[in-house]
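ok so i was messing around last nite and threw this chain in just to see what happens. nothing serious, just curious
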Amino acid sequence: MKFKTLLILCMSAAIAFAENDNPLKRAMETLNSSKIAYSVKELKKPFPEPDRSNLLNMPAYRRFVDGGYKVTAFEFKGDVKKALDKAEDLFSKKEYAKARDAYKRVLLLDPNATIVMAYIAQTFGIEQNWDMAESWYKKAIEANYIDYLAHWLLADVYRNKGDRKRALEEISIAKVLNRNNPRLESLRQKIYAANGLDSSHWAFNPQARVLQTPDGSVVVEADTLWMYYAFIEAAWKFEPEYKKRAEANKDMGEAMIKECLAGLLPKIDERKANSKTLTRLDKALSAGKINSFIMYEIILPNKPSLAYYLDKKQIEALGDYVIWSNQK
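result:
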């Protein structure tokens, strides 16, 4: 890399960190000696938050098989489908007592159709029979912990019963299990506001991108806050030694994110007062919750189905993180 601008930034990076090994210093040295031609472009117009409306989890059933989770979409065929169609028809006609009997018939035919338990709970919720609704949502969760609909609507049951604490816990778990659902997010905001938490929407949205041109050179584009982040990302995407590290370790995706985040550290004290990203990152770092920050704020928005493969303790821990991170 021969560009004067980048050489100056490399010197700044060395000053910003201690002399011991650190991700930013290593990336800058790699880019500076690279055979790839890099150029730097300052971002003038902010990147909007990505549209993740197509990244929604669908209801699924999971079992623990051979030391791991097997997750399958609900699929109803034959007599089970006929029974479910009958129950849904009764539900649409608002004949809720009859619909419940029909849903129970589905469960007799297929005990793995646990989503039907949530449907039964819904009928009680519509009738404002909150105790029975709570009971059936709990049955659905016990049978299939990743049932985000049951957690979501159980939170609403607790909200209607005035139990703000349990509503908070359940909506946070639902949020982990279906990270990008806008209707779920709407209820989260209401429940968080009722509990005195920050209810605003925030998303980790790097103001940086690295693009390879047809001639093989790379353009690093970022605003001043995200420039070092972008350099580290460029090293991971295009430099051979980084690619070798990624190929040798299946957990390198998280390692890459951690190293990219290190590029924000030189600015964290100076600019966190005006940056929600830096404020939240600093809070997570100070509390030793960086792994939860990475999983919930960065990985799950882009790979929401990964939540279905986390165990119950991991999901609950992320739910606790969501509550903690929004404390004022």
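not much to say yet. Residues 4-50+203-286 form one domain.
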